[in-house]
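Appendix B. Chain record.
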Amino acid sequence: MKFTKMHGLGNDYVYVNGFMEHVSDPSKLARLVSDRHTGIGSDGLIIIHPSKQADVRMEMYNADGSRGEMCGNGIRCVAKYAVERGLAPGPKLRIETDAGIKAVECVMEGGKVASVRVDMGRPELKAKAIPTRITADCVVEYPLRIGGFESRITCVSMGNPHAVVFVRDLHKVDLVEIGPKFEHAPEFPNRINTHFVRVDSPTRVTMRTWERGSGATRACGTGACAVCVAGVLTKRTERAITASLPGGELRIEWGDDDHVYMTGEAVEVFTGEWPC
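Structure tokens predicted for this chain:
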């Protein structure tokens, strides 16, 4: 099976061309290829399929084999792969995901995709739809104690669930210790992606992420979108921000049309063959 390793700000996935390759057990394959010691090494697996509703369809699996609805960094790489390999004409295309169809625009340089802007759609703020068992209509600055960690969380779905926690000192957050406790907390029936965020200015934040099914990652595109929304809801940030993550920066805007727009890089690392 041929594959391509790609990343967006270090959030890396193994990509398979579903137009040409058949994957019988993608959950198992995701666990195998994601292992950073015995596999290719990645945060998960993304298969690019034909679509009856859009230009292409992305099927995403986390490193633990669980199915994910959406990946902001992943969808930018899907766009780059599809346009550069002729699966879609570009530079504008539509990509079907488990969180709906997303409109994407590629910025081209020298015939290659340099960066990608994605219309991530409207954020979902209703607690039951995120979903969370917290008894509130919307979860904004909700006091919650998890694993001895006192926090006020804001919950947003960008097609997948996110909890945003604003902190003064990121260095005091033991992500590996507290991340799994948030992910598996009973308040979140489908688990949760958790982001710890320091506000540097009304237009800039620094964030660290624990992704459900993958652990600490270098970037999370849907998470950065959720952080932008949470920043506006809590009156900490403006509607357009730069999010600084361990892997680099994303530009996020919560537009007047209620859609969230994300712009960032998409990078191809290498191609190879995996023994099936």
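Further analysis of this model is presented in Appendix C.
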